[in-house]
Amino acid sequence: MERTVYLDGQLIPIEIQSSKSISEIENKLKEKFWNSYNIAKPKLIITPYFYFFYHYYKLKDNVIEKSFDGKIALNGSNLKIDIDATSLISKKMNNLINQLDQEFTQEETLITKATEKKVLRYKLSEYFLVPKEQVVISRISKYYIPFYEIKITINKKDYIVKVNASDGKIFDLDKIPAREKSNIEITIDTINDLKNPKSWASYSKGLFNETKTGIKKIKPKKIKFDSSFLTEKWTIVLMILIGLLIIYFALFKL
Predict the structure, then answer these.
(1) Of 57, 59, 106, 137, whose CB neighbour count within 10 A is largest?
(2) Hey, CA dihedral for 150, 151, 153, 159, is it positive or negative?
(3) Structure confidence by residue, pLDDT tens digits, 114-154
C-alpha cells in the first residue's frame, strides 16, 4: 500500500481513471489506422500552477484609458500562461485535496516563494503586452493539476502522450502520424466504398483533383501531361474504376 504524501499546494481531483485514458488513446490510434503498438503503464505526474488575481491598465497621454481585472494560471514548470488550466482550477475550486496515496512524480517548479510575485508580474506583462509597472497581482495560490504520462511505441519509435487526469483532455497525440495503408487495404476499402453509388461521385471528384496536379502550363495555350502525377492511392483507385467499367460494359453491352 502506498503511503500518503501531503502536498505544499491544493491538488485538482483525479476524476479520470488511467484505463479510460488508454481506451481513448486506442480509439484515436485506430482513427490513424494503427493496429500494432505498445502502450506502457501510465505514470501519474502532478504539475504546479500559480493561480492569482491581476489588474493592469493602459495609458493614453499619461492618463489611464482602460483597466482590466481577472484571474489567471501560470504553469510553474514551463512559466507559460495556461488559459485551460485557469478554467479548470476555477471550476474545481471547491473540490480540492492536499494529499495523494498513490505513486506519483512531482514536476519541479521554476518559481520560488521569494521570486513568485516578481516572476508572475513579468510574465503577465509579457502576456498582455503592457509595461510591468502597469501590472498588479494579488492573492497568489499554488495548485497541482494531475496528468497521466503515457509512452506509446510504434515501429520501434517512442511517443509521449499526456492526459489530464481531471478532465480527460489528451495532449501531443498529433505528434503520432497516421499510418499509410497498404495497397491491399486501399483496394479493399475502395471496393467496399464503391458498393454505394454515392461514393462514385466523391471518388471521381478526388481523381479529377489529383489529375489536375499532373497538368502543368508551359506556354500559353500549351500544356504538358506528367504521367507520374497520380499518387499510389489514386493509381489503385483508377485501376479499380477502369476494371469495374470494363466489367460493366462486358456484361451489359448491347
Answers:
(1) 137
(2) positive
(3) 999 999 999 999 999 999 999 999 999 999 999 999 999 99
Q: How is 45-93 classified by DSSP, letter by letter?
A: EEEEEEEEEEEEEEEETTEEEEEEEEEEEEETTTTEE-HHHHHHHHHHT
Please answer whether residues 27 and 122 qualify as being in contact, where contact means their C-beta atoms are separated by less than 8 angstroms.
no
Parallel/antiparallel/unpaired status of strands 63-75 and 135-154: unpaired
* Paired residues of 25 in beta bridges: none
CA torsion angle for 38, 43, 44, 49 (degrees, to 10)? -90
pLDDT above 60 (res 214): no
Q: How many CB atoms lie within 10 A of CB 116?
A: 18
Closest to 73 measured CA to CA, from 97, 98, 45, 92: 92
Residue type for 85, please?
A: A
Residue spans of beta strands (DSSP E) within the chain: 5-11, 38-39, 43-60, 63-75, 80-81, 97-100, 105-106, 135-154, 157-164, 170-171, 215-219, 222-225
